[in-house]
Hints:
The chain is mainly α. The protein contains 15 helices and no strands. It has helices at about 10-30, 35-50, 50-70, 70-80, 90-110, 110-130, 135-150, 150-170, 170-190, 190-205, 215-230, 235-250, 255-275, 280-295, 305-325.
Amino acid sequence: xxxxxxxxxxxxxxxxxxxxxxxxxxxxxxxxxxxxxxxxxxxxxxxxxxxxxxxxxxxxxxxxxxxxxxxxxxxxxxxxxxxxxxxxxxxxxxxxxxxxxxxxxxxxxxxxxxxxxxxxxxxxxxxxxxxxxxxxxxxxxxxxxxxxxxxxxxxxxxxxxxxxxxxxxxxxxxxxxxxxxxxxxxxxxxxxxxxxxxxxxxxxxxxxxxxxxxxxxxxxxxxxxxxxxxxxxxxxxxxxxxxxxxxxxxxxxxxxxxxxxxxxxxxxxxxxxxxxxxxxxxxxxxxxxxxxxxxxxxxxxxxxxxxxxxxxxxxxxxxxxxxxxxx
Length: 327
């Protein structure tokens, strides 16, 4: 292809540059098509010996792999590109993206001790370099660290402050993360009506055609299942859990398939407590979903999630022993 005034090398750069933002948007939406697009970009960048777009392409792959829960694959990618980033044109942004994906990986792996050590320095760094759009992300994850340390009030204060910031600066993606964290906090505090309201409104935003964030649609449907389970509304809990599981399967979000399968099993167990005539059937379904979660988790390396499943299976077995149910 020849265009007057442009060398072929320039046209190749324009094509890479044009394809990059849509590919990154797909990743942030939880759309698995981003992997194919990023691999095309990576191949084009390598042919041009373009370190900047090679790194950016690998960061796209890494963030979607983090969403999937493939933490060892994410760490491998990040280790491969760490020493290349100083040689890229967009070094600062690539550096911050690299660290955000690293923190996201720790968040999904529940490595809260590591997050507690590393996040304060990263937050200060983003403030010092004026990377304001990243601050709600790092600070929001810091809120989650506080939440897990039973400092729920401090965590909520952070979430509300950052949600206002995101609203003022039109940072929809960051706001979705903060709403998810806030609704989870309200659920723990047993502020059920507040949790439902936040999660439902956030789900509507995530489903808005101008945003259409599939990843957060899965997360909010899962969260609404948890909230309705806490309300003992098992029909609604099952509906949201089934919808979330189907979507997670379609999107190849392995970690969330595991978590939602486990949640489905726990909902069946709750139903067994109140639906006397279907007790055995519900317990059998609960056991089946726990085993599915245990099988699926083999596809990722997340010892904390394995431990969570095993604990839930032990609780199910104890319930069966008390109720004289043989599974």
